[in-house]
């Protein structure tokens, strides 16, 4: 199968200045507002952010899977082309073959009217019509076995409603793996699952990556998921990237107050009787994003009056970090400030 044809030293996938707007009756939703991130061969990139921060919209834009009501600008570079300017035919050839997406909702992503094995075989046949139905069906059974579905030959003949939530998620992963993609994008692949199955699905994704050498983009609201799987992390807030860096940089030395807040709301296995902090307030509506830094109404470090409420902070390199960037006017000052119990709560509404 052809590879993405990446030149040495270039990312496999590069999203640059992605802007997605939905024109609704209530106003213009700026779902992605200048999002940029890169994915290098064989790496796992975690995209983290609260609900509504633009994670799914950004992922769907890569394969131009948004509804026609979306206005999309920017660049998505893959295999020497800009996917946002590619023809429908070029996109069809890439989707499910070179870049595969595991959708946030596995039940709606599987066709209820077709047997699970048939759907996986069809994914192979769409891209490789030289493969016979017999071989494609055989491969589908193999794939279901690979993702840990017991008695895969019998299960392949069943319909999606006959699968549990965890099994549907595995079937989606099997379908995404069907053509050994260069990039696998998994949108909240574990959210709907119980904790034990979540851990199994994450192990499976790590295993898939090792086996196929594909890059994995893992979208989640859960830093715990990222900590166990990702090499690099991209943190999103209100349609923008607010911080990115290696998993160690971002988790051990977060440079953006939002990242610090998310980390403080994450349970730590080693600590008993810990008090979990919640970032106060809610993420903003993307129709009416606060001026300046969109996080300022919730930020315990916000300086208002001052630039926080008036000037949009650009992504800047974090000092001495070798690649970590954060969009905060005071990144340099905050880089080593731990968020202590109470800090985030105490700052509720600061500057709002
Ligand atoms: N078809 C659409 N029409 C209008 N607005 C939309 C549409 N799809 C998404 N949005 C809006 O775009 C914003 C970003 O949504 P998105 O689904 O990307 O968030 P998310 O980060 O994936 O959240 P979650 O963690 O809940 O999945 C939200 O404000 C959402 O309401
Ligand atoms: S720019 Fe200001 S409001 Fe925004 S994260 Fe930094 S300190 Fe907080
Ligand atoms: Mg989503």
Written overview of the protein:
This protein is of the alpha/beta class. It has an 8-stranded mixed sheet with strand order 6-7-8-3-9-10-12-11, with helices on both faces. Strands 2-1-4-5 form a 4-stranded antiparallel sheet, covered by helices on one side. Strand 1 and strand 2 form a beta hairpin. Helix 4 crosses helix 5 and helix 4 packs parallel to helix 7. The radius of gyration is 21 Å and the shape is globular. The termini are far apart. Bound molecules: adenosine-5'-triphosphate, iron/sulfur cluster and magnesium ion. Adenosine-5'-triphosphate binds next to strand 1, strand 2 and helix 1.
**Unreliable sequence segments:** 339-352
Please write the string of helix (H) and strand (E) elements: EEEHEEHEHHHHHEHEHEEHHEEHH
What's the number of structural domains?
2
CATH H-level superfamily title of the largest domain: P-loop containing nucleotide triphosphate hydrolases
Strand content: 15-25%
Kindly report how far apart the N and C termini lie.
Answer: 54 Å
Report the mean per-residue pLDDT as an integer. 87
Number of strands: 12
What is the SS-derived class?
A: alpha/beta
Shape: globular
Q: Per CATH, what is the topology of the largest domain?
A: Rossmann fold
What's the quaternary structure here? single chain
Helical content stands at 25-40%
- Main β-sheet, in a few words? 8 strands, mixed
Q: What Rg is obtained from the alpha carbons, in whole angstroms?
A: 21 Å
Task: Give me the number of helical elements.
Answer: 13
Per CATH, the class of the largest domain reads Alpha Beta
What is the CATH architecture annotation of the largest domain?
3-Layer(aba) Sandwich
């Amino acid at each position: 199968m052809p590879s993405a044809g990446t030149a040495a030293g270039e990312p496999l996938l590069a999203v640059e200045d992605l802007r997605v707007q939905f024109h609704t009756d209530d106003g213009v939703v700026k779902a992605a507002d200048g999002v940029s991130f890169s994915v290098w061969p064989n790496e796992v990139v975690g995209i983290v952010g609260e609900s509504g921060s633009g994670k799914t919209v950004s992922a769907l834009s890569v394969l131009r899977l948004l509804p026609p009501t979306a206005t999309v600008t920017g660049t998505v570079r893959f295999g020497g082309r800009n996917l946002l300017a590619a023809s429908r035919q070029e996109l069809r050839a890439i989707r499910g073959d070179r870049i595969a997406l595991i959708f946030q909702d596995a039940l709606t992503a599987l066709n209820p009217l077709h047997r699970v094995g048939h759907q996986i075989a069809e994914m192979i046949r769409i891209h490789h019509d030289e493969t016979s139905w017999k071989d494609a069906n055989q491969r589908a059974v193999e794939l279901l076995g690979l993702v840990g579905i017991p008695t895969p030959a019998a299960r392949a003949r069943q319909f999606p409603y006959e699968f549990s939530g965890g099994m549907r998620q595995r079937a989606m992963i099997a379908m995404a793996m069907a053509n050994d993609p260069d990039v696998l994008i998994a949108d909240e692949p574990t959210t709907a699952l119980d904790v034990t199955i979540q851990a199994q699905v994450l192990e499976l994704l790590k295993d898939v990556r090792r086996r196929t050498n594909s890059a994995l983009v893992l979208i989640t609201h859960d830093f715990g998921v990222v900590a166990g799987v990702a090499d690099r992390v991209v943190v999103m807030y209100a349609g923008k990237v607010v911080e990115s860096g290696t998993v160690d940089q971002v988790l051990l030395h977060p440079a953006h107050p939002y990242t610090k807040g998310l980390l403080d709301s994450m349970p730590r296995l080693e600590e008993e009787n810990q008090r979990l902090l919640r970032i106060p307030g809610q993420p903003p509506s993307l129709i009416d994003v606060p001026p300046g830094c969109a996080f300022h109404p919730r930020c315990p470090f916000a300086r208002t009056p001052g630039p926080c409420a008036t000037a949009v902070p650009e992504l800047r390199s974090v000092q001495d970090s070798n690649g970590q960037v954060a969009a905060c006017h005071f990144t340099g000052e905050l880089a080593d400030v731990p968020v202590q119990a109470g800090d985030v709560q105490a700052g509720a509404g600061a500057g709002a």
